[in-house]
What we know:
By secondary structure, the chain is mainly α. Helices cover about 100% and strands about 0% of the residues.
Amino acid sequence: xxxxxxxxxxxxxxxxxxxxxxxxxxxxxxxxxxxxxxxxxxxxxxxxxxxxxxxxxxxxxxxxxxxxxxxxxxxxxxxxxxxxxxxxxxxxxxxxxxxxxxxxxx
Length: 106
C-alpha cells in the first residue's frame, strides 16, 4: 500500500512537471505571437505616421506656394501703382519745370 502511494505520488509529480512544461511552452507561444503582433503594429504605425507626415508637408508646401504667389501678385500690383503714381508726378513735374522756364525766360 505504501508502495502504491509512493507510486501515485511519483506519477502525480511527473504529471505536474508535464503540465508545468506544457504551460510554459504555451506561454512562450503566446508571448512570441504577442511580440510579433506588437512589431507588426509598430511597423504599421510608423508607416502611417510617415504617410501622414508626408501628406501634411505636401499640403503645407502647397499653401506656402499659394501664399507666395498671392504675395508676389500683391507686390506686383503695388509696384504698378507706384509706377503709375510716378508717371503722374513726372507729368506734373514736367509742367512745373516748363512753367518755371517760361516764366523765367518770358
